[in-house]
What does this fold into?
Amino acid sequence: MTEEIIIAGFGGQGVLSMGKILAYSGIMQNQEVSWMPSYGPEMRGGTANVTVILSDDRISSPVLKKFDTAIILNQQSMDKFVNEVKPGGTLLYDPNGITHHPERKDINIYRIPGAALAAELGNPQTFNMIIMGGFLKVKPIVLLENVKKGLEKSLPERHHKLIPLNIEAIQKGSDSVETVHTL
Amino acid sequence: MGDVRLMKGNEVIAEAAIRCGCDGYFGYPITPQSEIMETLMIRRPQEETGMVVLQAESEVAAINMVYGGASCGKKVMTSSSSPGISLKAEGITYLAGAELPALIVNIVRGGPGLGTIQPAQSDYFQAVKGGGHGDYKLIVLAPASVQEMNDFVDLSFKLAFKYLNPAMILSDGVIGQMMEKVELSDFKPRWTAEEIKEISGSWATVGKPADRERNISTSLDLDSAKQEIFNHKLQAKYRAMEENEVRFEKIACDDAEYLFVAYGSSARICQKAVEQAREKGIKVGLLRPITLFPYPTKAIQEMLKDVKGILSVEMSAGQMVEDVRLAVNGKVPVEHFGRYGGIIPTPEEVVEALEQKILGK
It folds into this structure.
């Protein structure tokens, strides 16, 4: 199994940390992982993206052009990556702020109202774990117990009290993902 | 399994330095390698192993602190990115001229000049062919993974002390900034003063006993006859490195009709390009130089009985390709493909370049 994922949105949405938690979850199930961020001027307030690869085998390139899954969290990222999902691949997006919805018919498309659900939970910082929940619902590549271990590993100890809230957010995301189009 | 973590390449350089018993780090911040010193500052190894971590007032100061530490037989290092390495170039040639062991890490960014903070491999010539003045060589290691960032710190020090020569880890913003799974090395204690006397007492400034002349760390000898003899000695040392220390990796080379040659992050991209090209039925392999000096010249030559063409891939306008051409000596076509100025090539672009530049011939 190899899953090549791009997660793209605004800086501050938790894109990089979601990728990190996903990568740690992969390590918890003995997979090879890579996490390649955009860095530099982009991360200082603009768009942010990270390429995450989980694989049972040695990972070749950490830098990719085409992806099995794209997780898209703003319009700029949609414009940049909608055509970079491999045919048969998966696109998951938050419709918040999206003006041009994806229309491809050769990929699976799912929608998750992450920003709205985070507001409902009363904590905007749960946004990325809601998205994670939606992703794992449609692509269950890591077990929830390994995500929990991943959270334990990647969050500093003083934030461990927030893990139950994060798990709740993952559950909420998992329950709330909507199918737009499947093959 | 040992201590397995998810870490950035830069952070791993710092952690590996602490764990291999490094005595001192002297640096000055510059993107994309600042996490090396940041990690050391957060880890505070001075409280754990006694390793000194010092932010110098400039790159020039940092490399001269390395010279001082190395003269005392200590395991010392510095790190920077391209423009900072240019500033250190004088100190590096002095280290080579004084036959001092040290580690210099270059997390390369695009140039020339201040250039960009994005990844590049355009410092190959500087690392391998000189950078500073005079006939000297660095031992140059090119990690292609975060794991190798860990492994090559200790290896660099081993080689530097074996040959009494500065070693360089030549990496770039891709390997420095990305996180991968890494198994960290076990902790080794720093050398004691007694151990340093035993290991390096014949040349290091460890105090003059009654039974020998004082040791002096210098690269100056105004007597040309002596300077030539010294240069012969250096050249013999470099030939010994070429004989004993060449490292490389071959991927999918057994039935290869074509070959990529690439190091560091470009090698990772080429590995994907090998997969993609083979799906198209193109039998291509990858030869990844791990040591850039000494260069795997013979390994490339041994491939020539089977391969019909070679594409050298690097994030530069074409530097390492010259060493590939020297090895191949006109026997098969050798072409270069590169993106530069901080642009990272995609595997798809590499396959297209192979088709156009090599298969199209």
Observations:
- Chain A has one domain: 2-181.
